[in-house]
Every structure is written in structure tokens, then in C-alpha cells.
């Protein structure tokens, strides 16, 4: 492949990430229709889905999930798509990811711990309702402090 072709492909990939970041769902879908890899990653290991979810872009997130984007892929910092959405406080994105069975315990900082650390009560409720796995002592204490006592599964 010559240099000019390589540069054009790199530019196209950069544009795909911009589409995911800025919720340009129509162009993103067009790129996917032309064969763009739905699990394309950037230099930090972030996928299109990670960038769409982290920026609260509902339409782009929906399209990427519909196209089969890897919901469990971790970036180079070992963070998940779900933990990023929890950190930012995007309830609707979190709901979508949970509907696609995102693992609330995945990654270096799990979505559950992220919701606890940043006091995302509504998101914490969504996570605990979705997954009835036993919580650690620290998680139970934090959840009680944040008023979601009724959802806590006792270990």
C-alpha cells in the first residue's frame, strides 16, 4: 500500500472516531456500511463504542451496539465502556449497555465501583437491579450510605 492510500485510510479512521465522539450517527453508520471495523481502536485502545458512550452519544452508541461492537473490550488503561459511562453519569447509555449484558465488574475500575466512588445513585440502582451478585463489604457500606439499601444482596 502506498503512502497516499495509507494517509487516506488513517484520515478516514480519525473521522470515524470524530463521528463517535460527536454523535454523527448517520456518517458513522455509512462508514460501517462500507466495511469499517465496528471494533476499530485508536492509539489508546479506545473503541468507537467507548468514545460514543463516554461522550454520552446515544445514537452512535445504539448503532454500534446494533452492529455488534465488543461491549467487554477494555482500553489500554483496562477500563470498560460501562465504567466510562458510569463515571460520566450517562444513565441512558448505562441502560443500553446493561440491556446488552455489559459486565458490571469488568475492568480495573469496575462500573459498580465507579458508580460508588462518584456517588451515581441512579446508576448504582440500575447496576444493582441488573446484577444480583454479592457485594464486597466496602461496596455494601457505600451502597447503604448512598441510600440504595433495599437493593443490596447480602453476601
UniProtKB/TrEMBL annotation:
Keywords assigned by UniProt? ANK repeat, Repeat
The protein's matches in InterPro entries, at most eight in alphabetical order, are given as: Ankyrin_rpt, Ankyrin_rpt-contain_sf
* ANK repeat spans: 44-76
Q: Which Pfam families match?
A: Ank_2 (PF12796)
SUPFAM superfamilies in the record: Ankyrin repeat (SSF48403)
Does the record's keyword annotation contain ATP-binding? no
Keyword Ligase included in the entry's annotation: no
What this protein is called in its record is Ankyrin repeat domain-containing protein
Name the source organism: Helicobacter jaachi
* Upper lineage: Bacteria, Pseudomonadati, Campylobacterota, Epsilonproteobacteria, Campylobacterales
Amino acid at each position: 500500500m502506498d503512502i497516499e492510500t495509507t494517509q487516506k485510510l488513517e484520515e478516514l479512521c480519525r473521522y470515524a472516531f470524530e463521528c463517535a465522539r460527536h454523535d454523527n450517527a448517520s456518517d458513522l453508520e455509512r462508514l460501517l456500511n462500507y466495511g469499517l471495523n465496528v471494533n476499530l481502536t485508536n492509539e489508546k485502545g479506545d473503541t468507537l463504542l467507548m468514545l460514543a458512550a463516554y461522550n454520552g452519544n446515544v445514537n452512535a452508541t445504539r448503532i454500534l451496539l446494533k452492529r455488534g461492537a465488543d461491549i467487554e473490550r477494555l482500553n489500554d488503561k483496562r477500563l470498560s465502556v460501562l465504567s466510562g459511562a458510569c463515571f460520566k453519569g450517562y444513565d441512558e447509555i448505562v441502560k443500553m449497555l446493561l440491556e446488552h449484558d455489559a459486565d458490571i465488574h469488568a475492568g480495573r475500575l469496575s462500573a459498580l465501583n465507579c458508580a460508588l466512588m462518584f456517588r451515581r445513585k441512579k446508576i448504582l440502582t440500575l447496576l444493582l437491579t441488573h446484577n444480583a451478585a454479592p457485594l464486597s463489604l466496602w461496596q455494601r457500606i457505600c451502597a447503604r450510605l448512598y441510600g440504595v439499601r433495599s437493593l443490596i444482596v447480602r453476601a
